[in-house]
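for the writeup, i need someone to sanity check this before i put it in the appendix. the sequnce is what the collaborator sent (i think, or maybe the updated version? ugh). structure was predicted straight from it, no edits. if anything looks off just tell me and ill rerun, i have time this weekend
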Amino acid sequence: MTIVSVVLLGVIYPLLMTGIAQALFPRQANGSMISVNGKVVGSANIGQLWTKPQYFQGRPSAAGKGYDPTSTGGTNLGPTSKKLIAATKSTIAALEKKNPGAKGPPPIDLVTSSGSGIDPDITPEAAYWEAPRIAKARGMTLAAVDALVAQHEQARTLGFLGEPHVNVLELNLALDGIKPQ
């Protein structure tokens, strides 16, 4: 029974699922890679660190040394943790300093890391909150940046699963006028 189980569940089933995934969803099965001029610039599923003021930034990362897909995970700090409270206050202060034209406090997804630490998306509210900084850094109108955010908003899956979101890599490529392949 052990040999049959190992062969069936350890070899045949994974090969069958891999074949089905490659046949039905080849882009997703291969990591949802985004290419520009034939060069892979990232994955639609893995966040990246964006530090320049002319780019939208994603959620903070707690994965390895930052956005490390081989070491995913959250901070595992509880809501009463002094370390988490200090880090949150520091992140809020840094965001407010970098975004003086933003209205109101930073949206929570720009302050806290996701459970995986590599979330590639932010809420539309977070993107609109960052938009004044982007517009100023690029010499664009706020309306033009807001329009670009609106074009990249993705609705809830099937109309009820998840939250509306914006993929930061795709939005930043659009800002640069680059059409991903």
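The chain has seven helices and five strands. The longest strand covers residues 39-43.
thx in advance!!
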